[in-house]
Amino acid sequence: MTRPELRLDARTFRDNIRAVRARIEPSELMLVVKDDAYGHGLSWTVSEAERAGVSWFGSYDVRTALDVRRDVGGRVCIFAWATSTDEEIDEALRNGIDLGVGSAEYLDRVIRRAGDLGLVARVHLKIDTGLRRNGLLPLEWAAAVGVTRAAEDAEIVEFAGVWSHIAEASDAEDDEAQAVFLEAIRVAEEAGARPVLHHLTASAASWWRSELRGSLSRIGAFCYGVRSADGPDLEGIAPIASLVASVTRLDGDTAVVGIGSFDGLPSTLAGSMVGTPDGSRVLRRVDHTSCVVEGWPGMDVGDEVHLFGPGAHGEMSATTLAESIDTVGEEILTRLSTRVRRSVID
Ligand SMILES: *Cc1c(COP(=O)(O)O)cnc(C)c1O
Questions:
Q1: What is the pLDDT of residues 286-315, one digit of tens each?
Q2: Can you say how many angstroms the Cα of residue 234 is from the centroid of all Cα atoms in its chain?
Q3: Ligand 1 atom closest to Cα of 228?
Q4: Is 214 exposed, middle or buried (0-12, 13-18, 19+ CB in 10 A)?
Q5: Which of 9, 69, 91, 297 is most solvent-facing, going by the fewest CB within 10 Å?
Q6: 1 band by pLDDT with thresholds 50, 70 and 90
Q7: Which residue is closest in CA terms to ligand 1's atom 3?
Q8: What stretch of H or E contains 172?
Q9: 37 lines ligand 1 (CB under 6 A)
Q10: Of all atoms in ligand 1, which is nearest to the CA of residue 204?
C-alpha cells in the first residue's frame, strides 16, 4: 500500500442506518450527505443507503443533489437547502429536487423560475428558530406563507414542508426553538397550507429527544458512526471509516508511516494513540508527508497503522481524536486530501 487509505465498511454503515431508523421511527430518516458524505464519498454512500431503504437525502447544495439524483435515479426524495443561483434552481426543478427556502428573496426567485419553466417547485420554508443562520424570521413568516400559498394556488409551488435547524447544545434552548417551530406550522395551517413534512432535528436531538422529532429527521453524523462531541457511545452505532497507512521505514525504535499533514492529518494530533499490529502506540510526530509512531516488537516496513477507526487495533475513533484537539469528528474526516484513497469493504 503506497497511498494512505480510508477504509469504509459498508456493512457497518447499513447497521448504523438500521439502528438510527429503528430509534427515530415513526419519524423518517433524511440521510445528510453534504461535504462528500462527511468525507466518506458520496456515490457509494448514496447507493448503499438507497439499497438499505433510505428514501430521503439531504444534500445542502444543488450540485450534490444532482449527483445524488444521477446515482439513484427518480426513486428517492432529495432536499437541497443552500440558497442557489437561478441556473441551479432551474436544474433542481428539472430534476425534482425539493428546495429549502429561508429568505423572501430566494422564495421570489424560486417561484419566478418555476413559473418561467412551467414546473412545480416543491418548497420547504425555513423558520429561524434562534440560530440566525438563514431562515425566515417569525416577523416575516406570515408574509412568506402568503406568497407561497398564492403560488400554490397558481400551481407553480407545492408547499411541501416546514423546517428549521437547532443548536442541540441545551435542552432549554431547543425547547424554545421547538415552540417557535410549532407556531410557524400553526400559522401556515391557519393560512390553509398543508405542509406535511416537518423537520427540525439533526443527529443528537433526533436520537435523544423524541418529543422534538418531526415527520423527518435530518441525520448525518450518527449514520457514519461519528458520535457527538463529548457525547456517549451509542447503542448499535459504530464508526464506518478507518484511516490506514503503512510503515515506509524504520528509524531506531520508531516507525515512519506514510501519511502526513499534507494528507489532512492534523499535526496537532501528535501525542495521541494510534493502532498498530501490536495494539496502541503513541503518535510521536506528524510531518508534512509522513508521521512517526512509537515502535512495537517485530515492526516491519509495510505494517499497517490505523490512525483512527472502530478500535480493533487499539486506535481511537475520529471523534475521540478530534476531541483531543478541540474539533469535531466530521472535521477530521472532511479534511483528508484526495491522495487518501477511499476503498469500500463489504
Ligand atoms: C449538517 C446538517 C444536519 C446533520 O447534522 P448531524 O449532526 O451531522 O446529524 C442537519 N441539518 C442541517 C441543516 C445541517 O446543516
A1: 999 999 999 999 999 999 999 999 999 999
A2: 17
A3: 7
A4: buried
A5: 297
A6: low
A7: 202
A8: helix 171-190
A9: no
A10: 7
